[in-house]
Amino acid sequence: MGPLQIKDILQTAPDNQSVVVKGWVRTKRESKNAIFIALNDGSTIHNIQAVAEPGQFSAELLLTVTTGACLKITGQLIASQGSGQTVEVKISDIEVYGTADPEQYPLQPKKHSLEFLREIAHLRPRTNTFGAILRIRHALAFAVHQYFNEKGFFYLHTPVITASDAEGAGEMFRVTTLDLNNLPRTDDGAINFKEDFFGREANLTVSGQLEGELGAMALSKIYTFGPTFRAENSNTTRHLAEFWMIEPEMAFFELKDNMDLAEDFVKKVITYALVNCKDDLSFLQNRLAEEEKNKPQNERSLPLLEKLAFVVDNPFERLTYTEAIDILLKSKPHKEGKFQFPVGWGIDLSSEHERYLVEKHFKKPVILTNYPREIKSFYMKLDDDGKTVRAMDVLFPGIGEIIGGSQREENYDKLLGRVKEIGIDPENLWWYLETRKFGTAPHSGFGLGFERLVQFVTGMGNIRDVIPFPRYPKSAEF
Ligand code: ATP
Ligand code: MN
């Protein structure tokens, strides 16, 4: 089944056995006594070193062995003569699959800025940094499925195209097959969506939650893990127009159970990465340290592995929104007028407030609960005081909100009241409302932005660097 991967060859005991390695040249170095080729196939951050004798190959062939070229090397696996690796390949034959003209190939063995690499997203997976990120991203995705499978959840595929405009209207991407240059009109001049593909307006989903709830009302515990689309025109380091969201939804879970699950879940998937991605995490840790070496000591962040271990080993701080507002009102930056946005009960916390709580006050992940009903979604369960809802947001250092969730309103009349209150036509949500009419149950769920998790685990500052081909305003090139 294909050639051995470099990851496995590097673990093999050398015994002069013949091996074939295939991969891309990272560097070629020529000395008086030998020619060294470092080859990488993406299976690991480590390269395999292949060695030839001077004069063994024609100058013409060697000229084509440049950074980025793809080779098949045949040879013998031997104990490495040099330091830095235990095994190496003594080359007997080189086949060049594909050259990479050094005049044109943009990835040279030197440091490239992340901004530049974003412009060559088709090639950046071949860098050490992006190789590490993509392998960690894979490991985290695998850990997500493994976690839920072990906990008795079912993976529910919720639709990508939706016709319910209940959530996030305005920030949705429209889906249509209508001819934009020749739109069908009704008698009163409006666009006639009856003639559109679905016979009605349709959009890309902003969340699988509503359908997820339908699943939980039958299978008890489900999760979704799929692409999510938001046309929010925000050029932040934490927002993408296309991102992946993990949304568990559980019958018979109250808010406390929901918090317990969220905390355990995040800790377990981070632990999986710590155990299985050691080399890639160490590489990224060194990369970050390098980036921060010019900062004063007290402004440097914890080494990446320590930061992750800290999150895994310590309980998250849990408090209510009201308690958080009190802390903010008493805080130094508030008293000294250092916050850009005002603080007061009822405000939607801005990221400077969230970061103060997490990074300055508690210095650990925080779960905030019981937000004012006015700033949260209509489906969240009303608290007894009628003022707050059973919401929970999980806030992470450096990221801010990583999870948003709640206990859902299971009472038909209360939910219908909220739907009308915020101006949604109940007709559009008849199927959602019916779950509260037929066998309703207390239930809860949350949404975790997968890229924000990957950002946290890799320590990357910009969300555009933790997804292979990011989508953001004015950018969908690759
Ligand atoms: P924020 O306030 O940060 O914009 P939100 O409150 O709109 O997020 P939710 O609707 O609660 O987000 O979505 C659940 C989770 O999805 C968030 O906690 C976050 O991790 C992630 N998320 C939301 N919007 C984006 C986005 N545009 N890009 C990447 N992840 C996102
Ligand atoms: Mn949210």
TrEMBL record:
It comes from the Bacteria. SUPFAM superfamilies: Class II aaRS and biotin synthetases, Nucleic acid-binding proteins. Coiled coil: none annotated. It is found in: Cytoplasm. GO terms for molecular function: asparagine-tRNA ligase activity; ATP binding; nucleic acid binding. Its EC number is 6.1.1.22. It catalyses: tRNA(Asn) + L-asparagine + ATP = L-asparaginyl-tRNA(Asn) + AMP + diphosphate + H(+). Keywords: Aminoacyl-tRNA synthetase, ATP-binding, Cytoplasm, Ligase, Nucleotide-binding, Protein biosynthesis. GO terms for biological process: asparaginyl-tRNA aminoacylation. GO terms for cellular component: cytoplasm. InterPro entries: Aa-tRNA-synt_II, aa-tRNA-synth_II, aa-tRNA-synth_II/BPL/LPL, Asn-tRNA-ligase, Asp/Asn-tRNA-synth_IIb, NA-bd_OB-fold, NA-bd_OB_tRNA. Gene3D superfamilies: Bira Bifunctional Protein, Domain 2 (3.30.930.10), Nucleic acid-binding proteins (2.40.50.140). Belongs to the class-II aminoacyl-tRNA synthetase family. Homodimer. This is Asparagine--tRNA ligase. It comes from Dyadobacter sp. 676. The lineage of its organism: Bacteria, Pseudomonadati, Bacteroidota, Cytophagia, Cytophagales. The gene is asnS.
